[in-house]
Amino acid sequence: MEFMNISRFEVIKHLEGYVGKIFNEYMKDVENSWQPGDLLPNSTSENFFDEVRQIQERAKGLVYDLVAVLVGDTITEEALPTYESWLYQIDGIKEIGYDSNWNKWIRSWTAEENRHGDLLNKYLFLSGRVKMREMEASTQYLIADGFNIQTGHDPYKSFVYTSFQEVATNISHRRVGTLAKQQGDSFLAKICGLVAADESRHAKAYSSFISKIFELDPSNMMIAFEDMMKKKIVMPAHLLREAGVEIGKSFGHFTNAAQRLGIYTAHDYSNILASLIKEWEIEKIESLSDAAEKAREYLVNLPGRLNKIIERLKIPQLEYKFSWIA
Fold first, then answer.
1. CATH assignment of 8-32+47-310?
2. 325 — phi, psi (to 5°)?
3. What is the pTM of this model?
4. Residues 6 or more apart from 152 whose CB is under 8 A from it?
5. Is residue 210 classed as helix, strand or coil in its secondary structure?
6. 130: β partners
7. Contact status, residue 176 vs residue 193, Cβ threshold 8 Å
8. Exposed (0-12), middle (13-18) or buried (19+): which is 111, by Cβ within 10 Å?
9. Run of H or E including 190
10. In angstroms, rounded to a whole number, what is the distance separating the alpha carbons of residues 307 and 148?
11. What are the extents of the domains in the chain?
């Protein structure tokens, strides 16, 4: 039942207990988590250089666009300070204490995500396929430039974004892994599989937050969902650039490469939206305001409208030469 005139702060405060209840379901403790050192060659071992040579030999078979997408995914993961600081600014979370379940969630989510950039960065360093300084400059630029995902401090819009984005990153890492395996790099495939599994687990958690908000404040949640989809969900690296390149321009080339390989496409965007509409049972929610009913109608019809537009899209076939790739 919808609370009358409930504020977003009250909703987030009310969900504090729920976050604590599901914490162990969606977050692993450090003792049972994989670490990059579990997978990468041990630099103290006498076999270290042989293992590095094996990584480099396998990496030679990766096509150019796949390396470009992997670099872009890695830079995205390494811009973690931006994402953590944004989550801490969400209304209802920024007002509560250090020991709250919400703050515990953000810290633990950040800690799990931090391994992704560490592992992928070290793989690329060892692979011999990447000019590390160029990639590192892009990472510094992305953290310095930040992002504008148009959620403000609104928890409803923010969790729509995280629900959508975690699914998108799961798809991207999973498909990079599939293509890597097809191209002879089973080691990279294993790495991407582990990262994708984390993203899938995180997506389920954030999606469950939205489900709970719909129970408490369905009309405002519906309107917030509509607002985010009207603005469009932009990727966290939408301002990605290389040294000497205009801000955001490299992101377009990165997404073109992902589209060419079928790693993350416009169809995926539409399919994620459709899956969230189904998961949150948008068509079954009752007692909506007039504005929320209009928002629901817009959302339910949006995947079909997007699919018609997508059918007319043409994917650029010209390979862009990234400064990152050796």
1. 1.10.620.20
2. -95, 130
3. 0.95
4. none
5. helix
6. 325
7. no
8. middle
9. helix 186-216
10. 26
11. 8-32+47-310
Q: Are 281 and 207 in contact (CB under 8 A)?
A: no
Quick one: angle between helices 101-127 and 80-88, nearest 10?
A: 170
Nearest Cα to Cα of residue 74 among 136, 128, 18, 30: 136
- Could you read off the pLDDT of 198-241 as tens digits, one per residue? 999 999 999 999 999 999 999 999 999 999 999 999 999 999 99
CA 251, CA 138: separation in Å to the nearest integer? 11
**pLDDT tens profile 272-308:** 999 999 999 999 999 999 999 999 999 999 999 999 9
Torsion of CA 139, 145, 147, 153, to 10 degrees: 120
DSSP annotation of 93 reads T
What token pair was written down for 84? 């953590």
Distance CA 90, CA 293 (A): 26
Burial of 113 (0-12, 13-18, 19+ CB in 10 A): buried
Active site residues: 34, 77, 113, 116, 166, 169, 198-199, 202
Residue 317 corresponds to which tokens in the numbers above?
């076939």
Cα–Cα distance between 68 and 35 in angstroms, integer? 24
